[in-house]
Each structure stands twice: as structure tokens, then as C-alpha cells.
């Protein structure tokens, strides 16, 4: 696993904490969308939508492209790869600890009830 700087994960988690941003991610999971398309169902103004999208872009989750007057956003193909690896490693560490505990518990003789 490539070691990511701690601030990279901080930006990623910060991007995911907001429900509006998670909504934009849900929408972008279906395909690219313009700022106007993303703003339509949100009950916030266009400037707030742009700020949210900037946070998602800074977190490495989305990328944007401007063609003419239209800015289109899409989810980056590798957006969640590092976090999936990080979570997978934590899960593997935890499973190894439980495996060691199970081995130790198997070595303890069972008490017999009289």
C-alpha cells in the first residue's frame, strides 16, 4: 500500500462528512453531471454547491472539466482506492488479533462443573 500523507485522509474524510457532498457523490456515481444538474435537487444556492464541489475536488473524490461555459464533474476512478486499502489493512490487523486471541483461548483448559 502506498503511504498517503495524513492530511490526504483528513481531506477525504472531511469531504465525506457533509450530506450534500455525499448526495453529489451518489449522483455522480450514475455518471458525469454539470454544476447545474448537481445543483437542481439541492436546496442550497449555486455558490454553496460550488464550494461543496471544490471540497470534493480537494479531497480527490471528483474531477472537473470545463468545456465552453459548462463545467462537468465526475467521480475519479481511483477516488476510494486508498481509503479501501487503509480500511482493509485495519480489518486485517483486527482479524489477526482475534485469531491470536482464539489460539490463546484454545490453550486455556476448560473448567469442569461438579
UniProtKB/TrEMBL annotation:
It holds the Pfam family HTH_20. Residues 1-95 form the HTH arsR-type domain. It comes from the Bacteria. One of its GO terms (molecular function) is DNA-binding transcription factor activity. InterPro entries: ArsR-like_HTH, HTH_ArsR_DNA-bd_dom, WH-like_DNA-bd_sf, WH_DNA-bd_sf. Keywords: DNA-binding. This is DNA-binding transcriptional regulator, ArsR family. It comes from Kaistia soli DSM 19436. The lineage of its organism: Bacteria, Pseudomonadati, Pseudomonadota, Alphaproteobacteria, Hyphomicrobiales.
Amino acid at each position: 500500500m502506498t503511504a498517503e500523507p495524513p492530511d490526504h485522509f483528513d481531506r477525504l474524510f472531511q469531504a465525506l462528512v457533509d450530506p450534500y457532498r455525499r448526495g453529489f457523490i451518489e449522483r455522480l456515481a450514475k455518471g458525469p453531471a454539470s454544476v447545474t444538474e448537481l445543483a437542481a435537487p439541492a436546496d442550497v444556492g449555486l455558490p454553496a454547491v460550488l464550494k461543496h464541489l471544490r471540497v470534493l475536488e480537494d479531497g480527490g473524490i471528483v474531477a472537473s472539466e470545463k468545456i465552453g461555459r459548462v463545467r462537468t464533474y465526475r467521480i475519479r476512478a481511483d477516488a476510494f482506492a486508498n481509503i479501501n486499502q487503509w480500511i482493509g489493512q485495519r480489518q486485517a490487523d483486527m482479524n489477526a488479533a482475534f485469531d491470536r486471541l482464539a489460539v490463546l483461548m484454545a490453550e486455556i483448559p476448560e473448567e469442569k462443573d461438579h
